[in-house]
Amino acid sequence: MLRNYIKIAFRNLVKERLYSFINIFGLGFGMACVLLIVIFVRDELSYDKFHEDAGDIYRVAWWSQQPQTRTPHPMALAMVKDFPQVNAATSLSPLWGPGLTRETFSVRNLEKDITFDERNILSVDSTFFDVFSFELVKGNRNEVLRQIGGLLLSEKAAKRYFGDEEPLGKYLAINDDSTLLVVEGIFKDVPANSHFHFDALVSYVTIKAFERGDDPYYTWADFGHFNYIRLQPGSDPNELQEQLMEWATGYLEVSEEDMQRVVEENMHFKLQPIADIHLHSQIRWELESNGNIDYVYIMSAAAFLILVVACVNFMNLTTARSTDRSKEIGIRKTLGAYKFQVTNQFLGESVLTAVAGMVLAGFIAEVSLPFFNQLTGKTLEISYLQHPEWIVILLASGVFTGIISGLYPAFFLSSVHPVKTLKGIDKIKPKGATFRKALMVFQFTISLLLIAGSIIIYDQLHYINNRDLGFDQEQVMVVPMKNTDLAGSFEAMQIELSAITGVEAVSAASNIPGQQFNQNSIFKTEDPQSRVSSSEVFVDAGLIDVLGLEVLYGRSFLENNPADSSSFILNETAALNLNLEPPYIGSEITWSWDNNGQPPARGTVIGVVKDFNYNSLHSPVRPLLFCLRPAYNHVVLKISGADMLNTITKVEAVWKQFEERFEFEYSFLSADLESQYIGEQKTARVFSTFSFIAVIIACFGLFGIASISYSQRMKEVSVRKVFGASIMRLLSLLIKDFARLIAISILIGIPVTWYIMEKWLQNFNYRIELSAMDFIISAAVLLTVALMTVTYLTFQ
């Protein structure tokens, strides 16, 4: 019996080549999309889970009106001492330059005279490997990071400096070659699915030996480090979190006024599960840009909808072809076949078709994976030999999809009455046709959602990329000052750079728009209780002019004016939050800046600039303070568009006159700003690609249904032509039913899509308003594509 089922199934697949092609390729392309999305989602959900007992590892964050990742350096080890449920803890931090941007180091192998610029260096506690499970391939896990002058390298970094030589015990020189660090360990390259990455580790023991011992950066007074803890198995993190604020007051020097503010604003320490950081944490001072759980939901929804579209195709086509097979079913039943046998026959054909589709899906996914990686910016892979579970998953999915998709058609076909069928009077029941129409409406409703969603996502990205941010970003060239000593030579360099034809203006700053900014409190000197948390930037006198910022009150900094070194410029938000009286000029404010324990700086407000978006448009404009101090990280040049390559070449030549140790690098501010939205851009590309595929799959089904429908109306069309019906009349007659179904899909899809995209747009502080035109265009695209699909058949 089984052999007969299989033989009949193959015979029908070969006989009905068109419908078999539509079914198999529809399912194949649909499941390939689903497979790729599943791999993507699986990778996003896997972040930091490679650590042993990752569920017990937490990051300690500070929660306030502006939450941040950084907390005091001594906190981690103090928690181990005071809380028995804390098994281990560690503190870490990037090595910061002025304005708290990551410092770049020139690292040199003196023996081979090989030098590279290194930026991904972390300073860590000696307990680093007690918390994290990064694999140490060379060196003693229990001894590294405990001696002054030790350095750990990744395998990739060790290969750069030492090639195939044994790196342990070898020395590397840092910056001016006066500082030598010995390689005491090699660790495996940090996995891609880690929320922070590094090429080298240096112990705090070493860092503190080269710095002042009384630096408040390493005390409870400075919230400047990243603290991680590992809890004892079974410990309740919520119970521990509730105790942290009261416990910390025993170490923090907090005044009664500040403590009252902490209570009123519900400030507290929060434990963030390490496995949640990548998708659920978007707070200040993230070690790297994180993902977004909303985009995982969007991709998962797209996978589900594509699968539904593919399955609906199968159900519709199989049910619609029931008339062609009604005599076969009638003969089977007349010869004694039971209803369950007929059901099994058609379920078997459904499963066979679905499994064939899954095999095709595996092939399509493998071939298209490089393109998908290019879209997502990832390095995902499908290795069926190394991971045979994917083969099992594909085949199991085929069987499951075949059963689910073929369940209704199988029962529908097995209910055919044999006598009526053989007499030629049995017709498809009205409810079957109604069900097919409902499925088609559902299918095209999904298609509209995907089309409109893609258009709205691109509209939002276009708005972000083209919105007036309040400053000039075009043709603004940014050159990192990797050597902090270079700030002392900036004036001489500025003169040389300004003399280059094509360079319109030259300035410098510690931070540039699109980056993170250091943050400290400012307040009116006469009102120290009303503090405002403000971002800060050290600038050269010309930066405000180079960026084209609009000065609303007062003036900009002046060159060679000593008085301006103790003056401040604020943005509008800072002036308003400080409750300064317009026109704000002359007000004295105090700035609690990071200056190695020195008292806060007092200064006079000499200017107020119009608010501009110096952070991502995901965030509102926050207070910002400009200070005239030579602590720069970037040279900022305004260049003309004429002969730009020649201008850049001349800038590099001047740069190398002042800096021989570090490599010359540059970027354009507009590109730097655009990179803030790389997550949205990747999601838009992937979503629109899969939306297009879903619409094509839906049109496959429409083509199949239309061909069956038209073949059943061949006699009707012939009779109408004999009686003089025009071509246009026949076109209208044949297309109107499908046009009506698509119109219903549009009416249902518009409010659903409106609601979903309105929710998504709430992620942005600056966003577009949904326009009726977006939905009109989406509906027109869907209607045009759908009708073009059936036009050929209609003319035939």
List keywords for this structure.
796 residues, alpha+beta, 16% strand, 6-stranded mixed beta barrel, 12-stranded mixed sheet
Mind sketching the topology for me?
Blueprint lengths: L1 H14 L1 H29 L11 E7 L11 H8 L3 E9 L10 E5 L4 E5 L2 E4 L3 H4 L4 E3 L11 E5 H8 L8 E4 L4 E9 L12 E4 H7 L15 E6 L5 H12 L7 H9 L3 E6 L3 H4 L12 H28 L5 H9 L4 H38 L12 H26 L3 H6 L6 H37 L9 E5 L9 H9 L4 E7 L9 E6 L7 E8 L3 H4 L4 E4 L12 E5 H6 L10 E4 L9 E9 L14 E5 L5 E6 L4 H15 L8 E2 H6 L3 H35 L1 H9 L4 H35 L10 H24 L1
Helix pairs in contact: 1-12, 2-10, 2-12, 2-21, 10-13, 10-15, 10-21, 12-13, 15-21, 15-23, 15-24, 21-24, 23-24
Describe the model.
With 796 residues, the chain is of the alpha+beta class. It is built from 24 helices and 23 strands. Mean pLDDT is 84; it is low at 427-431.
Helix proportion: 40-55%
Give me the oligomer status. single chain
Main sheet: strands, sense, barrel: 12 strands, mixed
**Count of extended strands:** 23
Strand percentage, roughly?
15-25%
Q: Low-confidence spans: pLDDT under 50, at least 5 residues? A: 427-431
Structural class: alpha+beta
Helix count equals 24
Radius of gyration (Å): 34 Å
The end-to-end span amounts to 41 Å
Shape: elongated
Arithmetic mean of pLDDT: 84
Offer a concise description of the structure.
With 796 residues, the protein is α+β, with helices and mostly antiparallel strands. The protein has 24 helices and 23 strands.
